[in-house]
Amino acid sequence: RKEVEQDPGPFNVPEGATVAFNCTYSNSASQSFFWYRQDCRKEPKLLMSVYSSGNEDGRFTAQLNRASQYISLLIRDSKLSDSATYLCVWDAWLGDKLIFGTGTRLQVFP
Amino acid sequence: EPEVTQTPSHQVTQMGQEVILRCVPISNHLYFYWYRQILGQKVEFLVSFYNNEISEKSEIFDDQFSVERPDGSNFTLKIRSTKLEDSAMYFCASSEFLAGVSSYEQYFGPGTRLTVT
User: Fold this and answer.
1) Helix (H, G, I), strand (E, B) or coil at B84
2) What chain A residue is nearest to B32 in terms of C-alpha separation?
3) Pairing between β-strand A70-75 and β-strand A60-65 as defined by DSSP bridges
C-alpha cells in the first residue's frame, strides 16, 4: 500500500462550487497531517494543518479520521485562484520528514 | 512575513561537476530540511538537520550529498559529482516546534531548479 494515496484528478469545477478531496495514509502511527498547495513549478505552500477535531480556515475545512486513516479537504465557494495541486502530507514523528502524496489537481473555471 | 530563501533559482551544470545549493531558513527556526521533486513526480525527502547534525536521511542522500550550516544563517546542500538523474527541483524547508499544538509546520523556499547536462 502506498504511504499516501490521493486521486490525481483533475477536478474541473465552476467558480462558486464546493469540492472535496480525500487522502488515505498507510502508517497508523502518523503524528501530524497537513494540506499543502502547489502551483505549477513552484514550492509547496502550507494551506493548513489538520487537527483531530477538524478545523476550518475561511472557505477551507479539513477533517481527520484516524480510525479509517484518511484526511479530507473541503473547499467552499471555489475561486479561480484556487486552481492548483493539493498535496496531502503527513509526518511520522514530530519534526520528522514529511511524506507527500502525489497531489490532486484542481482546475476552477469561470 | 518571514520566508525561506534559496539561491540560485536555476543552476545548470555538467555531469560530474560539484554544485552547492544555498538556503536561508526562517531566522528563529531550528529544524532544516532538503527535499527534491523530479519533474512530474512527488516531493521526496532528502535530509533533515537539527542542532548542527543530520537527524535523518533518505536512501537518495548517498555519499555524493552533504549538508552544512557554515554560519548562523545559511544552510547548504552539496552534490559532489552530479549525475543526469540529479536533475530536479530542490526545496529547502525549515520549521519550529509549536508547543501549543505539538506540530512542526514546515515552510518551503522557492526552490532551485538543477539541470545536469
Assistant:
1) helix
2) A95
3) antiparallel
Q: What distance in Å separates the CA atoms of residue A72 and residue A44, rounded to the nearest whole number?
A: 18
Q: pLDDT in tens for each of the 117 residues of chain B?
A: 789 999 999 999 999 999 999 999 998 888 999 999 999 999 999 999 988 999 999 999 999 999 999 887 899 999 999 999 999 999 999 998 665 555 678 999 999 999 999
CB pair distance less than 8 Å for B91 and A43: yes
B53 phi and psi angles, rounded to 5 deg: -150, 160
> Could you tell me if A7 and A22 are in contact, meaning their C-beta atoms sit under 8 angstroms apart?
yes
Grid coordinates given for A53? 477535531
Give which of B10, B35, B42, B49 to mutate to test A binding, by max A Cβ within 10 Å.
B42
Closest to B56 (Cβ–Cβ): which among A41, A44, A97?
Answer: A97
Q: Could you report the per-residue pLDDT of A41-50, keeping only the tens digit for each? A: 999 999 998 8
Query: For residue B71, what are the contacts with CB-CB under 8 A and spacing of at least 6?
Result: none
Q: What span, in angstroms and rounded, lies between the C-alpha atoms of B62 and B65?
A: 6
> Pick from B48, B91, B102: which is nearest to A97 by CB?
B48
CA-closest candidate to residue A110, choices A20, A37, A13: A13
